[in-house]
Recover the amino acids of this structure.
């Protein structure tokens, strides 16, 4: 039996994006979209799955539009692309190490400041 909504398209969801986050989101999404399109245009023989990369570039465009409009029609695919991007950025930034270091240093700072009170 087919799903009631096989394309996963629902109602638009209003987004609440802090003004400080929007430039980062737009720049990051535009950069990864540019990279995908650059690979497709200039290195087509090196792209293993061009159809997938074209879908990803289109998803980045949809996400840029969503951030700009503060509204999104979420799909599983858009969420998947966004989760993969977030994971990649976390990995590149060594997120787990940064969180550990932040917690350790601020724990020490809190104790030191507490002793001054």
């Amino acid at each position: 039996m087919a799903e009631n909504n096989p394309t996963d398209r629902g109602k638009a969801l209003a987004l609440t994006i802090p003004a400080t986050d929007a430039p980062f989101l737009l720049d990051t999404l535009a950069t990864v979209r540019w990279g995908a399109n650059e690979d497709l245009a200039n290195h087509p023989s090196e792209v293993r799955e061009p159809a997938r990369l074209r879908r990803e570039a289109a998803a980045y465009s949809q996400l840029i539009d969503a951030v700009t409009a503060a509204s999104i029609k979420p799909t599983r695919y858009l969420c998947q692309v966004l989760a993969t991007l977030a994971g990649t950025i976390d990995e590149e930034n060594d997120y787990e190490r940064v969180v550990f270091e932040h917690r350790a240093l601020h724990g020490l700072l809190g104790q030191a400041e507490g002793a001054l009170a």
Remarks:
- The chain has one domain: 13-116.
- The first helix runs from residue 22 to 42.
